[in-house]
Amino acid sequence: MQKLLVTGGAGFIGSNFVRYALEHTSYSITVVDKLTYAGNRESLRGLPEDRFAFVKGDIADAALIDQLVAETDAVVHYAAESHNDNSLHDPRPFLDTNIIGTYTLIEAARRHGKRFHHISTDEVYGDLELDDPQRFTEQTPYNPSSPYSSTKAGSDLLVRAWVRSFGLQATISNCSNNYGPYQHVEKFIPRQITNVIDGIRPKLYGKGENVRDWIHADDHSSAVLTILEKGEIGQTYLIGADGERNNKDVVEQILEHMGQPRAAYDHVVDRAGHDLRYAIDSSKLRSELGWRPVFSDFGKGLEDTIAWYRDNESWWRPQKAQTEAKYQVQGQ
Ligand code: NAD
Ligand code: TDX
Predict the structure, then answer these.
(1) Contact 240, 291 (CB under 8 A)
(2) Which of 5, 7, 12, 61 to mutate to test the pocket of ligand 1 (most atoms within 8 A of CB)?
(3) What average pLDDT does the structure give for the chain?
(4) Quick one: which ligand is closest to 40's CA?
(5) pLDDT for 244-303, tens place per residue?
(6) CA of 88, nearest ligand number
(7) pLDDT above 90 (res 1)
(8) b/e per residue 262-299 (b: at least 16 CB within 10 A)
(9) The pTM is what?
């Protein structure tokens, strides 16, 4: 394997993977990205020109995708509409990209006999009670709650069907909530950090008891590389780093790291259908493929992320006002 096609490589996690893979392997990488509101060419600035190419395009464009897939050895598929709140207000782009886009890619990968890795989310499993001793495993039944997570679940099922029916050489990974630099300011952690920088109080949906299982984006990238190189075709691997925390705790930590009183936040309207808790059991990935996360100290990772947003205002500033205006209309 020498050449990778990375879809959605101008987004948060895709760009992290591109930087990570260029640094830790000798692969050449082509990114295909539509540059929606969530994509940012600046997230890929300064990469080595002899090993990196960028193509602006839509994964649902069958002619373009056929040509790009024909030219690569493997596809790593990150491109998606990724924000739950947006999916509650305008679901259509989620169907177009997450379902039709994935279908377009796996048809091309099947035609050309190419290795395919599908990036997905723990949200396909629905949510857990706060006191449930169980965590999600590869055997947990699918039970998605939102338009976003149902389209991700649909895309996973398409990939599974293409493996079984057509022998597609695919693996799937379902990861928990990522944090780190280059994440869009619509998402929870960057929204609150940039709010505090702007003198706005952080906004907690509902009571703030909802639990997310946080993993640093670098650890997600190392896991994807491990699965791409060592994973068994047809298998699903859950990716997580034992990072369960409720939203209230995360907001309080952000405020404390940024020199504000821990209680200086507001409760706002809850998300419709808000999943209560996600928690990943990643034993299969650890025991079968020997993967381990590197970032074990969430407080330190959060401090580094805060420092990145302080130092890179020019990256996020153009998105901030319109993102907050959208939330304001929703009472959030
Ligand atoms: P993101 O919204 O930051 O980036 C998505 C990227 O895809 C953007 O660059 C966008 O321009 C591009 N894109 C969207 N529609 C496209 C289309 N039709 N054609 C080509 N490009 C298109 O999302 P992210 O947080 O980086 O998530 C990436 C992937 O990881 C998604 O598949 C998501 O479901 C999955 N995931 C995310 C998390 C998380 O915590 N963020 C956790 C688990 C899984
Ligand atoms: O302002 C906010 N206040 C708040 O309390 C925002 C934006 C969010 N929240 C809450 C909602 C969630 O409980 O914080 C939690 C995290 O919210 P998001 O950042 O929107 O992430 P989530 O909905 O959990 O989904 C994320 O993780 C799984 C990614 O956006 C998905 O792409 C991924 O699949």
Answers:
(1) no
(2) 12
(3) 98
(4) 1
(5) 999 999 999 999 999 999 999 999 999 999 999 999 999 999 999 999 999 999 999 999
(6) 2
(7) no
(8) eeebeebeebeeebbbbbbbbebbbeebebebebeebe
(9) 0.99
Closest atom, ligand 1, to C-alpha of 79: 7
Local structure of residue 264 (DSSP, 8 states): -
What is the C-alpha to C-alpha distance for residues 29 and 53, in angstroms, rounded to an integer? Answer: 6
Annotation says 138 is catalytic: no
Question: In the chain, what percentage of residues exceed pLDDT 70?
Answer: 100
pLDDT of residue 158: 99
In what helix (H) or strand (E) does residue 120 lie, and over which residues does it extend?
Answer: strand 115-121
Distances in Å between the Cα of 245 and the Cα atoms of 38, 251, 298 are 26, 10, 10
Going from N- to C-terminal start, the domains of the chain cover 3-179+215-239
Burial class of residue 199, CB neighbours in 10 A (0-12, 13-18, 19+): exposed
Q: How far apart are CA 10 and CA 127, in angstroms?
A: 29
Q: Average pLDDT in the 195-206 region?
A: 98
3-state secondary structure of 192: helix
Mark whether 148 is an active-site residue. Answer: yes
Contact partners, residue 23, CB within 8 Å, separation at least 6: none
Q: Which two tokens stand for residue 40?
A: 């940012």
Question: Into which CATH architecture does domain 3-179+215-239 fall?
Answer: 3-Layer(aba) Sandwich (3.40)
- Residue 122 is among the residues annotated as catalytic for this protein: yes
